[in-house]
Specification:
This protein is α+β, with helices and mostly antiparallel strands and 628 residues long. The protein is built from 19 helices and 23 strands. Strands 1-3-2-4-5-6 form a 6-stranded mixed sheet, sandwiched between helices. A 4-stranded mixed sheet has the order 13-19-22-23. The protein has a 3-stranded antiparallel sheet with strand order 14-17-18. It is elongated. Residues 1-23 have low confidence and may be disordered.
C-alpha cells in the first residue's frame, strides 16, 4: 500500500538546521516513486532521488531543507499525501524553494502541472527540476511545457500497455482482480490461482444460508455484528492483506454493512466461477470505476474450488429479486414472491393484520377473533384504484397454502425415497410430454429462422453486386442493408433463445438427481421453515375459487362447499403429481371421512348464518323500540 514519508536532512546538520528553520523558510526536496518506475531499476528509487536533491541543495546553499516523498503513487494521482503536504507548506508560506529530480516527479498531467507552476510563481516559490535543467529563478523555459506533455504521453502509453496486458490475462480465464474476494486467498505457488480460506469461507457459507432462511441483508449484518464476527476488511487487514492493511480499524472490527452483505451474495466467484471485466475506468486519469453491463463481462466456470454450490447461488439471486417487507407484527411472510394469479399472471400480495383477541357477545358467550393472513391478486387490487385492469380476488388463506405445501413435500419426498428409480422414470416421461408439446414448434421456428438467415446472406451479396454495377444508389443501398441486417440480428437472437429452451429439455435427468439429493437432505418435515420453502418451491399458481351451489345473486356470497385449485411447482422437477399408492379400501375410507368433514363445515356455515341473522334481527328490533 502506498505511503508517504517526511524525514529531516542529514544527521550531522540537524542541530544547526533546527535553529535556522525558526528564522528561514524551507527548501522542500520532493521525490516520488510509482510501481512502474520500480521496474526501471534503482535510478528512480526514493533513496537515489533524495541523494541527488540533497547534494544539489547543499552545493547551492538551499538550506534548511526537508525531504517529502510519495512511495508507490502514480503521477496521474494528485491526491498523494506527500504532494498534498508540499502544497500545504507552500500555501502556508513556509517554503521558498521546491526541488525535484525531473518534471515527471511532480506529475504526469501537463494541465495540472501548468496550474501548479502558476501557483508557485504567485507564491514566489522557486521550482528546480535538477535533471531537466529547469530553474524558474533563471526565467521561463520554453521546453518545460513540452516536457510535461511528454511525461503525460508516457503515462498514457503505460496505461495502454497495462490495459492490453490485463485484457489478455482476463480473456485467458485468469482473474484480473489484485485482491481475491473475501473467502479466498492467493495460491503461494501461483498468484493467478485462488485457494479457499477455511475461516472466512465458513462465514460466507453462513451468510448464504441465512439468506435462504429468509433473512435480509440488514438482518444478516446486524446478527454478525452482535455475534462479533470480524468484518472482511478488518479480517484481511489483520493478516496483512487487502487494500486496508495499513489502516486497520480496531474500533469498528465488527461493523458489518448492508452493502458488504449484498456484494457477497452477488459474487458468482463463490460458486467456482471467475468473472472478469466487471468494472472499468473511463480514463487513466480517473480513479472512478464504472460498472460494465453483464453482456460485456467474461465468465469462466470451474476455475477454482467453490465455497457454495451453483444451485445455492442461483436460489439466493432468485430470492433477492423479491422484496419482503415486514408487516405490523414485525414479520415477513416467506411465501411472498412465490404465489401467482392463474388468470392474469400477477404476483399475489400478502395481507396480515390484527392479533388474536377475545370478544364477549350477548348471552355471555366468548368468541375469539383470529388475525387476518391471506393472499390476493395484486392486479385485482390495482383495478380498484388507479389501473383499469379486470381480475378477480383469488383470495386464499396463508395457512391453507402452507398446509398444502407441507402435505405435498411429505408425499413427494416419501415417494422419492421409496420409489427412486420409478421417480426418475416418471420425470423423464413428463419431460418427453413437455418436449412433444413445445419442442416441435421450437424446432420448426429454429429451422425457419436458419433458412431465412441463409436467404438474407444471398440478398446481401446480390445488393453489393448491384451497388458495384451502379444499379442502385448509395442511399438506397444503405437503407436496404440496415433493414436486412436488423432482421438478421433479430432472427439470430430468437434462434439462440429457442435453442437454449430445447437444450433445457435434456437436463431433466440431472434435475431429477438434484431433487433426490435435496429430498435426502430433509428426513422429516415437521414444520414449514423459510429454508424448506425456498429450497423446494419454485412457484405456486392460485386459481379462483368455486362454490358447489354457485353464488347468491343478491349478495354475491358463495353457497355450498368452497373449492380452490392450487398448482405447486417444485424446483428442478416442476409440477409433479405423486402417484396414489393407497388401496381401494383406503381410498373409500378417505372419501367417507372427507364427506363427513364437508357436512360438518356446511352445518357450521349454516349455523353461523342463522346466528348472524338472529343477532341482526335482534339489533334491528331493539333500535325500532321507542325510548322510555
Amino acid at each position: 500500500m502506498p505511503n508517504a514519508s517526511y524525514q529531516s536532512a542529514a544527521n550531522a546538520q540537524d542541530c544547526r538546521k533546527e535553529v535556522e528553520m525558526s528564522t528561514k523558510k524551507l527548501t522542500i526536496l520532493y521525490s516520488r516513486l510509482s510501481r512502474d518506475d520500480e521496474l526501471q531499476g534503482l535510478s528512480n528509487s526514493i533513496l537515489n532521488q533524495q541523494s541527488i536533491l540533497q547534494e544539489y541543495a547543499e552545493r547551492n546553499g538551499l538550506v534548511p531543507y526537508v525531504h517529502i516523498s510519495d512511495d508507490g503513487f502514480s503521477g496521474t494521482n494528485w491526491d498523494r499525501p506527500g504532494w498534498q503536504k508540499v502544497v500545504g507548506e507552500i500555501e502556508a508560506g513556509n517554503a521558498v524553494n521546491l526541488l525535484i529530480k525531473d518534471m515527471s516527479r511532480m506529475g504526469r498531467d501537463y494541465l495540472r502541472v501548468g496550474l501548479y507552476m502558476e501557483m508557485f510563481r504567485e507564491k514566489g516559490v522557486r521550482l528546480v527540476a535538477v535533471n531537466d535543467g529547469v530553474d524558474t529563478s533563471l526565467g521561463e523555459d520554453d521546453f518545460t511545457p513540452f516536457r510535461a506533455i511528454m511525461a503525460e504521453w508516457y503515462a498514457r502509453d503505460t496505461s495502454k500497455k497495462i490495459k492490453a496486458s490485463i485484457n489478455t490475462k482476463g480473456r485467458s480465464g485468469k482473474p484480473t482482480a489484485n485482491i481475491p474476494p473475501y473467502g479466498f486467498v492467493k495460491d503461494p505457488a501461483d498468484k493467478n490461482k485462488w485457494l479457499v480460506d477455511p475461516e472466512a469461507a465458513a462465514v460466507v457459507k453462513r451468510i448464504f444460508k441465512m439468506a435462504i432462511d429468509g433473512m435480509g441483508p440488514y438482518v444478516i449484518a446486524r446478527q454478525l455484528c452482535d455475534e462479533k464476527v470480524e468484518r472482511p476488511s478488518y479480517y484481511l487487514a489483520k493478516r496483512g492483506l487487502g487494500r486496508y492493511k495499513n489502516t486497520c480499524d480496531d474500533e469498528h472490527r465488527y461493523s458489518w454493512n448492508y452493502s458488504t452483505i449484498v456484494q457477497i451474495l452477488k459474487k458468482k466467484e463463490y460458486a467456482g466461477y471467475t468473472v472478469n471485466f466487471k468494472v472499468e475506468k473511463p480514463s487513466y486519469k480517473s480513479k472512478k470505476c464504472v460498472t460494465r453491463p453483464e453482456s460485456e463481462r467474461m465468465i469462466f466456470e470451474n476455475t477454482h474450488k467453490a465455497i457454495i454450490k451453483l444451485e445455492t447461488w442461483e436460489l439466493v439471486q432468485k430470492l433477492r429479486e423479491t422484496i419482503r417487507r415486514k408487516d405490523n407484527l414485525g414479520e415477513a411472510n416467506p411465501l411472498t414472491g412465490l404465489l401467482y394469479c392463474a388468470d392474469c399472471g400477477s404476483k399475489m400480495h400478502n395481507h396480515r393484520r390484527g392479533t388474536p383477541t377475545v370478544q364477549k357477545r350477548s348471552g355471555g358467550k366468548v368468541y375469539y377473533s383470529k388475525p387476518q393472513n391471506f393472499y390476493f391478486c395484486s392486479d385485482f387490487k390495482r383495478s380498484n384504484s388507479k389501473f383499469n385492469t379486470k381480475c378477480t380476488p383469488h383470495i386464499i388463506c396463508t395457512n391453507s397454502v402452507q398446509k398444502l405445501i407441507l402435505e405435498l413435500l411429505h408425499s413427494t419426498s416419501g415417494y422419492v425415497r421409496e420409489q427412486e428409480q420409478e421417480f426418475v422414470d416418471k420425470v423423464r416421461e413428463l419431460s418427453a410430454i413437455r418436449e412433444g408439446e413445445a419442442a416441435k414448434s421450437h424446432k420448426r421456428q429454429v429451422t425457419k429462422s436458419e433458412r431465412r438467415i441463409v436467404e438474407l446472406d444471398k440478398i446481401f451479396r446480390s445488393l453489393y453486386e448491384d451497388k458495384a454495377l451502379g444499379k442502385i444508389d448509395e442511399e438506397r443501398f444503405s437503407e436496404m442493408i440496415a433493414g436486412y441486417d436488423q432482421e438478421k440480428t433479430q432472427l439470430q437472437a430468437q434462434s439462440t433463445k429457442l435453442q437454449a429452451e430445447l437444450d433445457a429439455f435434456n437436463a431433466d435427468s440431472l434435475n431429477a438427481e438434484k431433487f433426490i439429493a435435496l429430498a435426502r437432505k430433509y428426513t422429516r418435515f415437521e414444520s414449514l421453515t423459510p429454508a424448506i420453502i425456498n429450497e423446494f418451491v419454485d412457484k405456486i399458481i392460485i386459481h379462483e375459487c368455486e362454490w358447489s351451489d354457485g353464488r347468491n345473486p343478491e349478495t354475491g356470497r358463495g353457497l355450498g362447499t368452497r373449492t380452490q385449485r392450487v398448482e405447486v411447482y417444485l424446483n428442478y422437477i416442476g409440477k409433479f403429481d405423486v402417484p396414489d399408492l393407497r388401496t381401494q379400501e383406503e381410498i373409500e375410507a378417505d372419501r367417507i371421512k372427507q364427506e363427513r368433514i364437508d357436512r360438518k363445515r356446511k352445518y357450521k356455515r349454516e349455523y353461523a348464518r342463522r346466528r348472524n341473522k338472529k343477532l341482526a334481527d335482534a339489533e334491528a328490533e331493539k333500535s325500532d323500540k321507542p325510548a322510555a
